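User: Predict the complex.
Assistant: Input components as received:
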Amino acid sequence: MDTAAVIVTVAGLGLAAFVLWYFFFSARQTASAVSSSGGVQEVSINVKGGYSPSVIEVERGKPVTLNFYRDEENSCSEELLMPDFSIRRDLPAFQTTPVELLPQVAGRFEFTCGMGMLRGALVVK
Amino acid sequence: MSPATEATETATLDIEGMSCAACASAVEKSLSRAPGVASALVNFATEKATVQYRAGQASPATLKAAVENAGYGVAEHAPSISAAERGAALDQQKALAYQKLKRRFGVAVGLAVIVMALSMLMLWPALMQRVNTQWLNYGLLLLTLPVLLYSGREFYVSAWNGFQHRAANMDTLVAVGTGAAFLYSLAATLVPGFFTSRGIRPDVYYDTTATIIALILLGKVLELRAKTQTSAAMKSLLGLQAKTARVVRPGGQEVDVPLEQVQLHDLVVVRPGEKVATDGVITDGQSALNESMLTGESLPVEKQAGDPVFGATLNTTGAFRFKVTKVGADTLLAQIVQLVEDAQGSRAPIQRLADKVSAVFVPTVVVIAILTFVLWFDLAPVATRLPLALVSFVAVLIIACPCALGLATPTAIMVSTGKGAENGVLIRNAEALEKAYQVTTVLLDKTGTITRGEPAVTDFVAPGQDAGQLWQLVAAVERQSEHPLAAAVVRYADAQRPDRAAPLAATGFRAIAGKGAAATVAGQAVLVGNTRLLADEGVAPAPALAARAAQLLAQAKTVLYVAVAGQAVGLIGVADTVRDTSAAAIQRLQAQGIEVVMMTGDNPQTAAQVAGQVGITRYFAEVLPGGKAAKVKELQAEGKVVAMVGDGINDAPALAQADLGLAIGAGTDVAMEAAGITLMHSDLSGVVTAIELSRQTMRTIKQNLFFAFVYNASGIPIAAGLLYPFFGWLLSPMLAAAAMALSSVSVLTNSLRLRGFSVKG
């Protein structure tokens, strides 16, 4: 093994480790919902290659409105799926799409794009 | 201004921005003070304002201004319409995106073809001698740049956006793969000396880069085209809605108004051939309506005053008026659309594995690609290791297709729930669809499911009598009665007289509870009732007639004697009749290997009779309403996967207990809630449709998942060069791109095959 091979090996393994850490183990942006005076918990979510914030905490038993603003035209994010709430919604580009739901049970409920690539979660407490 | 136009009108406004009861009173005050307003009532809870105003002095626009004056807003009305409009706007946006995509694809193809041709020419040694490679590479670079920056821009932008969110998607793979090939080529073009000094030929991969982008875009174009078809059934459902309604104003004049302005209690006129605008109850007139779009029932349904009509159904030849009972999101059509939408958003349990895999798919593939690169670099001969490592790296990234996995289940569910709705089978969620496929036993509630659920005349025995004349006498008596059996008799009698001659008059009518009825018709005393009535009146039936009655009773029928002038002259047999389609549907279920079991509250005799009639061998008789769920449990304890088919409220617990509940005949709302599948068409053929649809859908999903898993599981190792040591095969990244483009389209196309679903036979 020559120097170049050693460098490539070390760099490659390092990069692979970084990819695994970055996508699977690093911390996510979490936000708690803000309750409006009407009792509705509202959160704004920006959709651009992902959901930010991607983890949303809400309280159980109170209506929730998630305002998804799709800040891109990329077709990956055009559909929103929340299977636990039977929601499939088209998100028009550069518009806010409110998604209303009522969380009845505590738990972690994932939401994804139409193909399951972009991911977020609704944490009901 | 004439007094007519100054009539008071009522408007309902959806108020936005009220956060407290005080806001509501502020809005109310502002509205009340507005000119022309007679009264205003604002409900904070429903966020609605109901305003009565004089038409000449105020209008919805001035009312809106008054609300805005108070610092609040008025939302646009009629949610179901706005849903349709929202859909249209979305479609427009999608069409625009499709045009753009096609343009990007066109540019990529055009340039890729040139780049490819030039690169191929270089393989010709005679040409290679004459052309300056350096200059050619610059030329190729110039041709590839637009492909990258215009056609492929979205991949890089999306990959970067995703990266910032710690998310990786298909674009990440394409961007990294083509990016690596391009950057390597760029370096080989700009500083070839760096490569040659290390004994590596400075090859460029511009053709690879351009071709991959063109092929992936081709895949996207095909995918988008196919995807719009998955929701075609939904769109046609939404498109069923009428656009306008002909409303009768209080003054009596008829005005065409847009559907969203139709309000509760409005009177709407429907002329022959017109669509019914919304749900209501017929007030006068009669007609036959084609309800196939909602129920799947192809025969028009006769309707008259008092009968409900539903929006989007088609009037045939008659004309009628109806009073609006439901608008917007409350209508049956809107509820069906909502149900289908919900089902399409739900997750099938079978999808779980694919979901888990796709969650970790892209980063895992990136890691595999990196390891591939490292292995090739370490193991291949020094002179060729860099190009081999690079080609394999790019091929792994490009061939991996997370989309096929992600599309496998949802697209099939979308097509089949839409297809179900077209056939009057409303599927609540994907789980119900999956359960229907596993069903081994179908438990049918007899009444209203196998049978019509209402009594009908089945036999008429009148030896030596003029049947037509006798029916006239019977009908005259029974017309006065309110007993359900009497209604069945009258219905039958009317059907016997197509000429509809004026019915005979009955005088001195007496209803004798639990026994029958008596009256004088055409000067003769007529009795219609059971043996006790005859005994009371001192009439003894002839032995032959009594024997016939015993026969009918043995068939579980209700027997009515007819006596005229103190003589028992005839017998009428009444029973809940089996639907025409029941036997055939049950036979088809049995042909599919499904055990069909019946349960009923009737005595064993009746149960055996009906069961025999439709070919059922196993049944439960004398089941009390509360015991239905227990019977379901009993079957489940035998290890059966039970589908329960029922209609009434007292079926709800059994529907919920069953592995799959099917509510029949647009049933009651309660049954619909408890049921996984609702059959709009009120006969058993819907059960067959539901189970066949489920079987085909699950077959499609399994094919899709199998394909997606096998494709990725075999494609990635081949791209990594697994076959190279054995056969010397290495997958070209361009072939990888073609495979990837076709894989997701294959899955989609397979799902779309479900559109051809039809019930055989």
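The longest strand of chain B covers residues 279-290.
Let me know if you want any component modeled separately.
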